Amino acid sequence: MILIADSGSTKTDWVLVDVAGTRIVANVKSQGINPVHQAPDAIRHILEHELITPLSFVKGPWAVSHIFFYGAGCSSQYAPRMEQLLAETLLPLAPGAMPLASNPKPLKVEVHSDLFGAARALCGDGEGIAAILGTGANSGLFDGKTIVQNTPPLGYILGDEGSGAVLGRLFLNAIFKHPQLAGERDAFLKANKVDQATIINKVYREPLANRYLASLSLYIHDHLENDILRKLVVDNFRNFFRSNIDPYGRKDLPVGFVGSMAEHYPAQLREAAEAEGYQVGTVLQSPMEGLIAYHTKS
């Protein structure tokens, strides 16, 4: 069996697949894993308690021969570290380790960026532009085998245009600085039982501020009848195309998307794409279906 992981900054989807029968054996969800923002011990804790523990209830016998991990923050700098963590921590899933053996077979582990996973899921072996719009944002020009060009996303402070974290930042800026949104500001503060000081603390002093900012997208989505908020969403997407997709110079290719932002705001995404001269291709909330197809093809 193989274990496929699609990991963003907020959550990780794990799927245990019987390749021979092209059958999904188990689905597990854990919190997001990002080696840039999380220490090795924190990642080990997630793997042990949120992955191994649920998988221990899957009826056997079974074992994992290969792990394919596609994750946010898994650049060439961090991928080797992540491979080692996965190989060491998930050894109990290896052949010969259930029940525990003295010399279980080593796990084969491949770690790739979430962008590479998105490209495989959206484009298969073909050429295309793959984009991620979730808590963070990323994009790449894919030739069917590798990412041949990538605009650096730079994170939610310096970049990540189009992402949920940036939309949350734009939203907070707007409701506190634009008098015409005073009513929306008061409604938001009351609904979420927060004040300005609490928000400042969450963004500047608490860990994983990007997740908090991205969580505000849920409120924005429920209030799109407000033209100013709707324009925030569209402009956020337009900035994504301008800053990240224009450098590829390939308006002849459709842009495929994975991620919650693309899935939850389809009308605003297509409006932004049309305004910037692009065509929206396949849109997936998660790349997992495409990744399963890719790794089980004959």
Protein architecture, described:
It is a single chain. This protein is of the alpha/beta class. The protein has a domain at 2-120 and 288-296: ATPase, nucleotide binding domain (Nucleotidyltransferase, domain 5, 2-Layer Sandwich). The chain is 44% helix and 20% strand. The protein contains 13 helices and ten strands. The protein has helices at residues 40-55, 79-89, 114-123, 155-158, 164-177, 182-192, 196-204, 209-215, 217-221, 227-245, 260-264, 266-276, 288-296, and strands spanning 2-7, 11-18, 23-31, 66-71, 108-113, 128-133, 137-142, 147-149, 255-258, 280-284. The strands form two sheets. Strands 3-2-1-4-5 form a five-stranded mixed β-sheet, with helices on both faces. A five-stranded mixed β-sheet has the order 8-7-6-9-10, with helices on both faces. Strand 1 and strand 2 (11-18) form a beta hairpin. Helix 3 (114-123) packs across helix 13 (288-296), helix 5 (164-177) packs across helix 10 and helix 10 packs across helix 12. It is globular, with a radius of gyration of 20 Å. It starts with a strand and ends with a helix. The mean pLDDT is 91.
